[in-house]
Structures
1.
Amino acid sequence: MEEVTSKQQNREASKKPQTEAQAHGYDPNKYERPSVTVDVVMMSVRQKDLQVLLVKRRSWPYEGMWAIPGGFVNMDESLEDAAKRELQEETNVENVYLEQLYTFGDPGRDPRTRVITVVYFALLDSERLHVKAASDAADVRWFSVYNLPPLAFDHAKILDYALSRLRGKLEYTTIAFSLLPEQFTLRELQHVYEIILNKEMDKRNFRKKILATGILEDTGERKMEGTHRPARLYRFNPAAEHKL
């Protein structure tokens, strides 16, 4: 009796539409479906320079060329989950905060097929990372954003955009503080701004402007910087973030 019931249930199931979309008369094959990838731009201040983490591609297309870490999105995962997975698979980097930056979808940007990529961005202290080439990359290395090797796909365009957005964010966000230790001097903070903007800034004007925001807390401690008198150590005050 159980076998008969099971067969009846299977026959009934086979009569039902396979998906809710088909039940409403929607044909998923009516439109072409482009592939979707995620790319992760990771930047850090290293060796008095603004650097980006790149991987060397292991396979076609652009085999042997340097590229931004990334890959295809699986059908059962979110964009952010895909970005974190690809980052781990190619660079062994985990547990970093990612911010969605922009979407690039020019036809022909990928010789394999029509590919739209969603770019994520992370700005962080490289000393906290243990970077190494993982399963999907032949090598992984930090490069100066001002002296990049030839890049695969449209990744040079993506990095140009990321740098432009980063510079813009200095004016109205606290993004620069993610590149500093918990306590820092005003000189160290100015140095981060100068590296990102790729230009020198007037010391007096910079300090006047940043102190006027109230976003810094004086820790009461000091730090030696060269032969000068000890410099004040500050820390970021999250309660004043809205003042930028």
2.
Amino acid sequence: MSNFALTTTLSFVPKTISTFPRKFGTWVALFSLKSSLDLKLRFKPSRLIHMENKESSSSRGALIVLEGLDRCGKTSQSGRLYKYLDEQGHSVESWRFPDRNTGVGQMISSYLANKSQLDDHAIHLLFSANRWEKRSLMEEKLKSGTTLIVDRYSYSGVAFSSAKGLDIEWCKAPEIGLLAPDLVVYLDISPEKAAERGGYGDERYEQLEFQKKVAGSYLSLRDSSWKVIDATLSIEDVEKKLREVVLDCMITCHKGKPLSQLWPC
């Protein structure tokens, strides 16, 4: 230790101690500095505490989307999954697109029931707008820890519109920036098998040839977030497989998987 450093150090030592022999004074000064450092290390900087709190709060709900052809069983399985998770004590909500309770949703509902006519481009943009209406609320729910079970999402919009002949990239464009699902469960069934199920043909898009085109469009949209389940299995078997993949996804999101956006440029 230099004379300057020693003098500076000793200036912080009480006069009664500084009058002791130099070696003893040096030892006391070093002990004092060590104690000061130890004291500081016991208390974490406020910035570090904030960062740790931020990390612990990154736990969130999962965005689970069920997709598939008309009459594949999405609505039934969404309801069963919601009931199961709710009974297990999870914070969960069941959503469906189009959401026919909004202003845009009511226009879509009229169109689907064949009560109004719209250009294919116009109805596609309405479907997209319907999802954007709920985008902020969706993010808020997920960040608060609520898992969302969603019956149809952007993939349906793109698959159905591109099946009409619209350019698939044009169909994707209005969806860019919406939240990307953590898991897409595709309930796989052939158009022919789906057409055999009760109630088929009640809405505009429930036509066999058209559904074949939709199936082809869905195939081109699959990515790593998709899990395919055979929808021709019994209701109970489909439900069991669905629970397995959903619970795994929920665990990942609880550990802090970050939210992402659809089809980033």
